[in-house]
């Protein structure tokens, strides 16, 4: 069978990325231009600035992806691009670049869902075994997705308010930690003690949904009340107690869903998958079961285009095609 080489393009948030992936499983090149430095002083991603950076970086990143791979356009079978969800202005840059290239180079075009990408980042490490359960935890997402076969996604739970990473970033801000705050809280949590009993939002019986806004408010109140009473709370203890609540809910619901749906594999995706507390607790919980747990390396947890090419390869092989009328869809459903 002939090898398939797929180009992936990702611009949904603050990373401009291009990658070439072989047969949906092997990274040939993977280039990511991060904008974190430009957004840092604002304490979060500024959409307008993100779009402008994508415009500046897109052709450079694409050229690098071909250079790193030592390949040319003749060898590319299809162009895949994140069509949503994400920031509309940011998405539009990638979608329009992909459309222009598909037209100019006469290549098939396939739009990809960003979360499908995060899930398929794992297939660059290890082949999938179905049914599988994916826990997606990032700055914009907290989802549990059941997959019975390639390219089929069943949303069984999602956040009703803040995403897990968003909660991390907001709590980090209250503690005057730099953006993005997740890694800083993670580091503090390691040295802190779980002295505060923050709430766990289990929601209704049997629900696989998540909610982190109540926890966020509880942290604000705790800090505020302590200040008023002149008490000093240690930042590392707040971090440890907050992280314990997030990790407890995420791991408990993931384990319950994995058992209920009798899955053969559990995979974790998104930036928060880098969290040490989450990794440790997931590994501990799943080591007591016979369900294999897969957490990708850090580079594949955060936004990149190899994951888009990997998910796009399956869509391409399944015959899915997008027209040149493909548009960015900031609230695209999985
Ligand atoms: O997947 P990602 O790079 O971008 C989105 O699609 O959102 O995820 C970024 C998010 C940020 O909220 C960041 O604070 C969080 O992932 N994050 C972490 C850690 N590393 C990154 N959160 C907790 N612990 C970490 N070690
Ligand atoms: Zn993402």
Automatic annotation (TrEMBL):
Instruction: Name the residues that bind Fe cation.
Output: 114, 118, 303
Q: Where is the Gcp-like domain?
A: 26-309
Instruction: Establish whether keyword Acyltransferase is in the entry.
Output: yes
Q: Which UniProt keywords apply?
A: Acyltransferase, Cytoplasm, Iron, Metal-binding, Transferase, tRNA processing
**Gene3D superfamilies referenced in this protein's UniProt entry, alphabetically:** 3.30.420.40
Cofactor(s) this protein cannot do without = Fe(2+)
Q: Where is the signal peptide?
A: none
Subcellular location(s) of the protein? Cytoplasm
| TM ranges | none
Q: A single GO BP annotation from the record? A: tRNA threonylcarbamoyladenosine modification
Q: What is its main location?
A: cytoplasm
Q: Which GO terms describe its cellular component?
A: cytoplasm
One GO MF annotation is: iron ion binding
Entry function? Required for the formation of a threonylcarbamoyl group on adenosine at position 37 (t(6)A37) in tRNAs that read codons beginning with adenine. Is involved in the transfer of the threonylcarbamoyl moiety of threonylcarbamoyl-AMP (TC-AMP) to the N6 group of A37, together with TsaE and TsaB. TsaD likely plays a direct catalytic role in this reaction.
Question: What family does the database annotate?
Answer: Belongs to the KAE1 / TsaD family.
> Would you tell me the protein name for this molecule?
tRNA N6-adenosine threonylcarbamoyltransferase
Organism annotation = Oceanobacillus zhaokaii
What's the gene? tsaD
């Amino acid at each position: 069978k002939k090898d398939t080489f797929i180009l992936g393009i990702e611009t949904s948030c603050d990373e401009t990325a291009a990658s070439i992936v072989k047969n949906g499983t092997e990274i040939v090149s993977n280039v990511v231009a991060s904008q974190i430095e430009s957004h840092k002083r604002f304490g979060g991603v500024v959409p307008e600035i993100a779009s402008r950076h994508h415009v500046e970086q897109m052709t450079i990143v694409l050229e690098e992806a071909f250079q790193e791979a030592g390949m040319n356009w003749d060898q590319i079978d299809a162009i895949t691009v994140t069509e949503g969800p994400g920031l509309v202005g940011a998405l539009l840059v990638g979608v329009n670049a992909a459309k222009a290239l598909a037209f100019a180079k006469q290549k098939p075009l396939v739009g990809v869902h960003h979360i499908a990408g995060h899930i398929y980042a794992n297939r660059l490490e290890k082949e999938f075994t179905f049914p599988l359960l994916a826990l997606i935890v990032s700055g914009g997402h907290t989802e549990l997705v059941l997959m019975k076969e390639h390219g089929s996604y069943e949303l069984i739970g999602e956040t009703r308010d803040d995403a897990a990473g968003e909660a991390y970033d907001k709590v980090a801000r209250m503690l005057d930690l730099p953006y993005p705050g997740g890694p800083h809280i993670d580091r503090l949590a390691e040295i802190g003690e779980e002295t505060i009993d923050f709430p766990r939002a289990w929601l209704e019986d049997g629900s696989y949904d998540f909610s982190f806004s109540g926890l966020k408010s509880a942290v604000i109140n705790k800090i505020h009340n302590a200040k008023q009473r002149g008490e000093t709370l240690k930042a590392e203890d707040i971090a440890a107690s907050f992280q314990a609540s997030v990790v407890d809910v995420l791991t408990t619901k993931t384990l319950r869903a994995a058992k209920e749906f009798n899955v053969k594999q559990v995979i974790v995706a998104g930036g928060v998958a880098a969290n040490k507390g989450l990794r440790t607790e997931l590994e501990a919980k799943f080591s007591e079961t016979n369900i294999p747990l897969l957490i990708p390396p850090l580079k594949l947890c955060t936004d990149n285009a190899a994951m888009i090419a990997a998910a796009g390869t399956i869509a391409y092989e399944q015959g899915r095609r997008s027209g040149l009328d493909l548009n960015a869809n900031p609230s695209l459903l999985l």
